[in-house]
Amino acid sequence: MKKESKNNCKDSQNSKEEINKDSMHKNSSNSKTTGNSAENEIDYEALIAQVNQLNLSFDTLLVILTAILLNIYYVYYTRTQVLDTINNTKCAELLIDGTKIPRISNAMFLYATAIFLEINYSNYEKLDSVQGEQRDIKAINTAYRAFFSTLLVLIATAMSRSNLEV
């Protein structure tokens, strides 16, 4: 019989207590199992670390989305300026000044790329530190390529900063 866990963020402490109670119950009911509480704690800590990494990735994606929306506004602002010149109107004066948006969005992209660089580097370090039969060379190479490609994107984003108007 398996307990259904609540999917409520406010009850995360209660969920932790339920996990600990379940693991104690399983340990006491099964005499063959010894030392499972330490293994469960390690698994629990690994899951917490994974959730934290996913939360960081989610927040970084929101930063990227915001930068994209700012860029869309900048294109709209620039298009309005061009249409004002063609039609001899002054509609762009009614809009919020968008001249600094390219630098702001570039800084946001730099931040996001740096966060993903750190995530990829941590993943590479973790995989590279494994010794013995559990060492997966293919996974290490994939993690290294992900790290290196993110590093190149960071360098390219930093270099493009000097090309921006303002």
From TrEMBL:
Biased composition (Basic and acidic residues): 1-25
Comp. bias regions, Low complexity: 26-37
Segments crossing the lipid bilayer: 56-76, 104-121, 142-160
Keyword annotations: Membrane, Transmembrane, Transmembrane helix
Region (Disordered): 1-37
Protein name: DUF4234 domain-containing protein
Organism: Clostridium hominis
Lineage, uppermost ranks: Bacteria, Bacillati, Bacillota, Clostridia, Eubacteriales
